[in-house]
Sequence to fold (1092 residues):
Amino acid sequence: MAKNKQQKAKASKKKTWDLSPAPESTSHVQLKKKYELYIDGKWVKPTSGKYFPSINPGNEEKIADVAHADAKDVDKAVKAARKAYDNVWSKMSGKERGKYLFRIARMIQERAREFAVIESMDGGKPIRESRDVDVPLAANHFFYYAGWADKLEFAFPNRKVEALGVAGQIIPWNFPLLMAAWKIAPALATGNTIVIKPAETTSLTALKLAELIHEAGVPPGVVNVVTGFGDTGAEIVNHPDVNKVAFTGSTNVGKLIQNAIAGTKKKSTLELGGKSANIIFEDAPIDQAVEGIVNGIFFNQGHVCCAGSRLFVQEGVADQVIKKLKNRLDHLYIGDPLDKNTDVGAINSKEQLDTIRKYIEIGKNEGNDIYESSCNMPSKGYFCKPTLVLNVAQSSKLVQEEIFGPVLTVQTFRTVDEVIQKANNTPYGLAAGVWTDKGSKIFNLTGKLRAGVIWANTYNRFDPVSPFGGYKESGFGREGGLHGLEAYVKLA
Amino acid sequence: MKSSASKKLNIPDFRFTPTIDKVGVEERVARIQSRSIKKESKVEGMKMALNMIDLTTLEGKDTPGKVKQLCYKAQHLHDHYPDLPTVAAVCVYPSMVKTAKKALGNSGIKVASVSTAFPSGQAPRNIKLDDTKFAVDQGADEIDMVISRGEFLAGNYDFVFDEIAAIKEACGQARLKVILETGELVTLDNVRRASEIAMYAGADFIKTSTGKIQPAATMQVTYTMLMAIKDYYDKTGIMVGMKPAGGISKSKLALHNLIMVKETVGDDWLDNEWFRFGASSLANDILMQLVKQQTGAYQSGDYFSID
Amino acid sequence: MERLGILKTYKIYIGGKFPRTESGRYYSPKNASGEALANICLSSRKDLRNAVVAARSAFGGWAERAAFNRSQIVYRIAEMLEGRRAQFLEELMKQGSTKQQAEKEINLSIDRIVYYAGWCDKYQQIFSTVNPVSSSHFNFSAMEPTGVVGVIAPEEGSLIGLVSTIIPIIAGGNTVVCLASEKLPLCAITFAEVLQTSDVPGGVVNILTGNEKELLEHFGSHMDINALCYAGASEDHLTQLNKLSTGNLKRIRNFEANCMDESSQSPYFIQDYQEVKTTWHPIENIGGSTSTY
Fold:
C-alpha cells in the first residue's frame, strides 16, 4: 500500500498530456456577405430593405447579413407556394417528387463538410456533432421520405391520401439544418409546398439548403425560405392561405400559435419543450449509464428539447454515479466549436447564455449544491460550463422549468413507483431514459412514463425512421418514420 | 505486499460484478476514436507510446540470437532520431529470460517473462508455480501469467482467484501481469468479472491477451478493463496497471488507447509504470510516423530495422 | 283501477354512480310536439370537475387492462344494449323518432359497439411500427391512450351519437367525460345504465347532461383533460374550445361524420386519441458482421 501511494505521488507530478488544437478548415466554405429571401425560385430583397447580422457565438464575430422578411414578403412567398402547388407540385406524380428528394439527399451528402462547418460557425455546436449527427441525419431524412413519395397509399390502409396545400414551417436554432430537413422532407414527399422560416440566430444552413434545392432543379415556389424574427413567423402562421402550420420551438410560442389558428381550418403539429427524466437503477450498466447521462444533457450544449435534464439515481448507487459523473465532466473539452475535439461548444446566443446563467443563479440562491466542470474556458464567445445541480427538490424551479442549457438537476429515489411519479410530475412529456439490466423493469417503466420517446439503456438517439414527438405540453404530431407522414396529409 | 493488502480488502462476490452494455461501450469507444491528435500532442503521444512498449517475441522458434537482437533494438530503436526513449520492457519465454537480462544489462529496460504454461494455461498448479519461480530465478522483473479460462467459464471463480493469488506469492518482488485472454471470455461482462478477480487476487497489471487468440486488445475490451481499474482504485486506493496486447500495430490505434487512458483512469496512468502495450510491430510504425512528422515525407519500412 | 306508472328520474353518471347534479338544477326539454320529455339534470362545472376526477382515477387501470379484456367488456356493452332494446325504442320515439328510425338507430348502435369490440386488440397492430434504425438498436412505435377525453356529443342521434363518439375512445384505453345531447338526452342516462351493468369499471365513462354553452369553457380550460372530441354543431364553440385548449395543449378532434353512415366508424377514430410512443433499446450482436469484438 505504502509503495503504491508513493508511486501515485510520483505519477501526479508529471506533466499532463494535452491535445493540441485541431480546428476544422473553413477554406472550402462558400458564404455570401449578404443573404436575400428565397421566394419563387429567386433571391429577392426584403421589401423593408432591412437586414440583421448572423453572429458566430464561438467568437462573437458577424458572419453575414440576413434579410428580415415582413408581411409583404411572406405574402409573396405564400402566393408563390400556392401557385407552385396548383400548377406544378400537386400535379406531379409521387415518383417524380421522390426523385427530387433523393437528389437533395445526395447533394447534401456531397457537400456535407461545408454544411457541417457552417452549422458550427453559425450555431456554436461542436463540429464533431454537426459532422457526425446533424448533417448525415438531415441527408438521411430526405433519403427516407423520398422513398415514401410514391408509396403513400401503403401508409394509410383503406384511405385515400391527399396533400394539404401550402405548409408554413417555423424551426428553431438548436438543429437548424436537421430541423429544416425534418420539416421539408415529409411535406414535399406528401405533395405540399412550403414557406419555411429558420430561427434568426441560425439562418445560414437553411439558406445554403435553399441554394442546394435550387441547384437540384426543384420547381420555383415549391420551397420558399423567408428569414426573420418572431414577427416574420407570426405572418406565416396568420396568413389565410396557409393550410398547415408546423412549429418546433418553445411551449409558450406553441400555445400562441395554437391560439392564433383556432377557428381556422389550418392543421398543426407542434414539437415543443421538454424536461425529460433520465432514470438510473442500481442494476444498470453504470459506466454506460454515466455516458448516457453526459450524452443526454451535454449533447449540443443541452440545447435539445428532449435533453435528459432531470437525473434520477437510485439511492444505492447515487454516490458512485455522481462521483463518476463529476469525473466525466472534468474530462469534457469545452471551446472552439470548430475544433474536432470539442465536446461542448458555444451557447447559441448571448440571450440564451443569460437565461441559463439566471437559472444557475436561482439554483445557487435555493441553496443547492452546484458542481461545475473544471474544464478550461475560452476567453471569447458565449460559453457555459457543464453544470450539475445536486440535492435539488422536485419543487425547485430548476426541476420544473426547461433551461435549455448544459445544466443537469440530480435527484435520488428509492422505489420504482416513486420515480415513475416524479418523472411524470411535469407538464411536459417528450422523452425519458431508463437504465437497468432487467427487461421486465424496462417495459414496466416504458409503459408508465408519459413521454413520446423512451430511450432504454441509451439516450439521445435519432433516426429518420423513428417517430419523434411528445405527450402533453411537449406538443402533438410526430416527425420521422411512417407516423411523420400523417402531419402533412388529409385522409379521405 | 499486495496479497497482504488484499487480505484486508472486502472481496466481493464475483457472481455479481457490474454489468456492461456492449453497444454503449462501442459508442463510447467511437467517441474516443473520433479524437483528433495533431502536431505536438501527436509527437509527444507517440514518444510516450514507444516508452510503454513491451517489445515481444513469443515464438517456438525463438533462439538466444533472436532475443539478443531484440534486446539491442529495444535500446536503439532508431539511432537516426535523436532523444528517443527506450521501450519499457522485453517480453520473452522463461527459457530466454537469462539471455535477455544479460543483453539488456543496466539499460533500465525490464525483462518480462510469460509463465503458467503460456499461452493455454492448461497445466496443474504446481507446474505453473514452478514455471513462475524459474522465470523469477532467471531474473525476470515482471511475470505475465495466463488465467485458467476453462475454470472461469465454468463458473469456478474461486479457483481462478486462488491461482492468481498463489502465482502472485511466487513472484516475490517481480510485478505480476494477469492475462485474461479476453478473446476466449467472449463477453464484456466476463471481461469485467475476470478483471475484478485478477485485481482482488493481487494483480499489479491486468492484460488483455496472449497474442495467440483473436480478437485480442480491442478498444472495447481495453475500455472495459480500464473502467474496472478505475472502480478498483476508487474503492481501494490501489493503482493497477493496464496492458493491451495483441493487435495494436499502428501508431494511430496506440494514440487512441492513450486518449482512452487519459479520459478514463486519468493522466496518472500515462506512464510505463502503469500502462504498457504488448506489441511486436508497433514500435516501427511509431518510428515511421515520428520521422514523417520530422521530415514531412511518408516513410517506407525498408528504412527501419525489423528487429 | 289503472295502475299508476313509475316515472324514471334522470340523473347523471359519475364514477359508476348516479348522483343528481350537485347544483340541484334541472331543465325540461320538449319534443317536436311540445311535450316535456322529463326533468333532466342541468349539470354544473362542479359536476364536470367531479367527473374528471373520476375519469382520471379510472384511467390507469383501464389503460393497463389487457386489450383482449377491454374487447370483451366492450362486447358486453353490446349484449346489455341488446337486452334493453325496448327501453331505448320507447325513449327514441318519445324524442321524436319513428319506430323504424328508432330501430335502425338501435341496431346500428349495437353493431357499432360490436365493431369496436373487435378493434380493441387490433388497432395497435395496424398503427404500430417496428422501425429499422441504422444503429445497433431495436426501435418500435406503439400506441398509447391519450388520457382523459372530453366528449361533446352530437345534438342529433340520442344513442348513436354517444356510441359513435365514446366507444372508439374507450376502446383505445382512454376514459371519457361526455356531455350528452342537450335536446335529446334521454338515451344518455339509459345508456349509462347499460355501461354500469356491463363490466365497464366506474369512472371509465362519465355522462353529464346539460347546456353546452355553459360547460364549454370548463371543458376547454380544464387542465386535467388531455383531449376533446367536439361533435357539436357550433363553429364558434369549436373555435372557443381551440383557444381554451392551449392552456395544456389538448388534442382537439372535430367529429363531423354522420353517425347514421358507415363512414362514421373506423379505427382512425381510435387512433385520434392515441399517442405514439417510440422505444429504443440497444441490440448486442456478438460475432455479428459489424462487431469489432
